Amino acid sequence: MANILVVDDELGIRDLLSEILNDEGHNVELAENAAQARAARQRMRPDLVLLDIWMPDTDGVTLLKEWSTTGLLTMPVIMMSGHATIETAVEATKIGAQSFLEKPITLQKLLKAVETGLNRVAAAAVAAAASPALARPGIVATRPVAAVPIAALGAELTVEAAMTGGQSLPPVVELGPQARQTFELDKPLREARDEFEKCYFEYHLAREGGSMTRVAERTGLERTHLYRKLKQLGVDLSRGKRGSA
């Protein structure tokens, strides 16, 4: 589990990234501008930052440069933008950004970039702990916190798997909604379809213990689209997780 700061002036982007990263088991802090990002950086000491380039008060590149020059760029920063030029992306990388994601951000690229950043944090912590300088009197080596690999699309590492050498324990699932449902057909097609789709997704959420990764695989939907579909249908995303607790 990592502490991740998401900085973006678009509410929809913040909410979507927060849902995805929370579902991956991370703690997420949100900021809509540079002022909030500065405060969050001091308060939570994030392990990684997702930083939008174009913001109303101070742009992301300027904030990145500010952190770099003041010694606060101690965490990986992934820049995001839907309108940035190659020159802007190169400039951000030279300042110290780890990578650049172009909007609309695909799920695979997001998870891969975050995983790479957290793995670098873990590797740096291990290297620092192993440094000979730490053996000198008066220097205390703190135990590095290992980053948990993010589940890639098509594969998921559960807590049980990590504790049993990669063997997943059988999940305890309360299916809740039945696999067979009776639907009222004397209604407009759109209403009937929405009713069916809601029951369909509720069933799979319960079956998969609330795991959005496995539901996406089971239903054949890209997970970003799946989130939007569930919100549109009014599906309770916590239902499956309560059933598997």
From TrEMBL:
Q: Where are the 4-aspartylphosphate modifications? A: D52
List the top taxonomic levels of the source: Bacteria, Pseudomonadati, Pseudomonadota, Betaproteobacteria, Burkholderiales
Q: What organism is recorded for this protein?
A: Ramlibacter aurantiacus
A Pfam family cross-referenced in the UniProt record is: Response_reg
Instruction: Provide the GO biological process annotations.
Output: phosphorelay signal transduction system
Q: What domain of life is recorded for the organism? A: Bacteria
- Name the chain's protein: Response regulator
The entry lists its GO molecular-function terms as: sequence-specific DNA binding
Provide this UniProt record's keywords sorted from A to Z.
Phosphoprotein, Transcription, Transcription regulation, Two-component regulatory system
Among InterPro entries, the record links this protein to: Bact_response_regulator, CheY-like_superfamily, Homeodomain-like_sf, HTH_Fis, Sig_transdc_resp-reg_receiver
Q: Which PANTHER family match?
A: RESPONSE REGULATORY DOMAIN-CONTAINING PROTEIN (PTHR44591:SF3), STRESS RESPONSE REGULATOR PROTEIN 1 (PTHR44591)
Boundaries of each Response regulatory domain copy? 3-118
Which PROSITE patterns does the annotation name? RESPONSE_REGULATORY
